[in-house]
Amino acid sequence: MAFTDVKDPTDRLVAPKEPSDKDFDSAWDDWTKFTGSLSVSHWLLEAMDLVCGCNPVEQVSEYIGGSWSSYAKQAEMWRSIGKAVGDVATNIDRGEATLALSWQGNAANGALHYFDKLVKEIQEQPKVLNKIADAYEKAAHGVWSFTQAIGGLIEGLIDQLLEVATAMLAAELTAETGVGAIVGTGVAVYEAAEAMHTWGEITKAINATNEIVNNAIGELESLAASGAGELKLGTFSQGAYQNPVATVTGPISEGMLTK
After folding, report:
1. Cystine design at 75: which of 14, 100, 137, 160 (Cβ 3.0–4.6 Å)?
2. pLDDT class for 259, splitting at 50, 70, 90?
């Protein structure tokens, strides 16, 4: 008895779409627009080096840089593959149910048992695929959340550093002791302390996001080393199905069908 597939797995295998969240999709563009409009003067660079020991805008830019939205697309791709595999299991299950209406005898029972177990093992595969998708999604969302949160902190830091830079310039213009005069400037000391606190918050956000990304990468490496191996057809416990009737030559007697 023939049967027709109830699902077409290839319908699932389409190119992943761009992330639906507009902010996520444009996070890097928004960041580059912000940094592109920022005029970094000599004294602002001096203030950055004094307070942060680096250029915080460049450091954050290097961290955000890269196509993190592609990680979100990777997650969608793996979930689509999982759904396609699930459709294959559904087709086998429905086909088995249809054939069971006409199959009889011990050989038929053995075949039904084989395909029933095969369906269950195939149904396990989307779980592994979804774990891969979860790891990509965690990394993408971690950087996206960081980008959204960091904008306000960076703007606040730049404002504070501008106050420090202004005091440094004033000290240069009004004191013979040069940049060292900043130490005696109350406003500059206060703003420098505030800027150091803000930079500390930014550093915490970087470290927290870095942990999220590293954990996600660790999960992917672990799945590649072990879990992804479960996706190979050769690992199905029963091996290829062997039809006992197909190995018989000559006329098939009624008794053979009940073995």
Report:
1. 137
2. very low
Average pLDDT value over all residues in the chain: 75
Element (H, E) at 51: helix 42-52
Q: Which amino acid would we find at residue 13?
A: L
**H/E stretch holding 161:** helix 105-174
Q: How many CA atoms lie within 13 A of 144 on its CB side?
A: 20
Contacts 24+ apart (CB under 8 A), 11-14: 11/87, 12/80, 12/81, 12/83, 12/84, 12/87, 13/80, 13/81, 13/84, 14/80
Q: What single-letter amino acid sits at 126?
A: P
In the numeric block, the tokens 């080393």 are attached to 225
Buried b (16+ CB within 10 A) or exposed e, 163-189: bbbbbbbbbbeeeeeeeebbeebeebe
What CA–CA distance (Å, rounded) separates 120 from 126? 11
**pLDDT at residue 84 is higher than 90:** yes
Q: Let me know: does 200 contact 215? Beta carbons within 8 Å.
A: no
